[in-house]
Amino acid sequence: MPTATATARLEARISTDLHAMLKRAAELQGRTMTDFVVSAVQDAAQRAIEQAEVIRLSLADQECFAQALLSPPKPAPALERAFTRRNTLLRTE
């Protein structure tokens, strides 16, 4: 038996001009206005999230990052001790 998807209600006050534009766009695509608006809002939300999660670097920053990957600095003594301790712990288990 299929399970019901939980839903929530969204309300917004818009101008009559925007309402007419949305209605026309939905009709042109052969969709209900609700389907058109939900799809458009979902696409806009996805784009906003993707844009916020993408890291953008200047050319100088890209070169610095690539150089750090290609020639990493020598590990500090504390990091070497941590790796030694980790390896010791993993061998005894």
UniProtKB/TrEMBL annotation:
InterPro entries noted in UniProt: Ribbon_hlx_hlx, TacA_1-like
Species annotation: Rivihabitans pingtungensis
Gene3D superfamilies to which the protein is assigned, alphabetical: Single helix bin
Keywords: Toxin-antitoxin system
Name this polypeptide is given: Uncharacterized protein (DUF1778 family)
Superkingdom field: Bacteria
Membrane-spanning intervals of the chain: none
UniProt cross-references to PANTHER family, sorted A to Z: ABC-TYPE TRANSPORT SYSTEM, COPG FAMILY HELIX-TURN-HELIX PROTEIN-RELATED-RELATED
GO terms, biological process: regulation of DNA-templated transcription
Family according to the record: Belongs to the TacA antitoxin family.
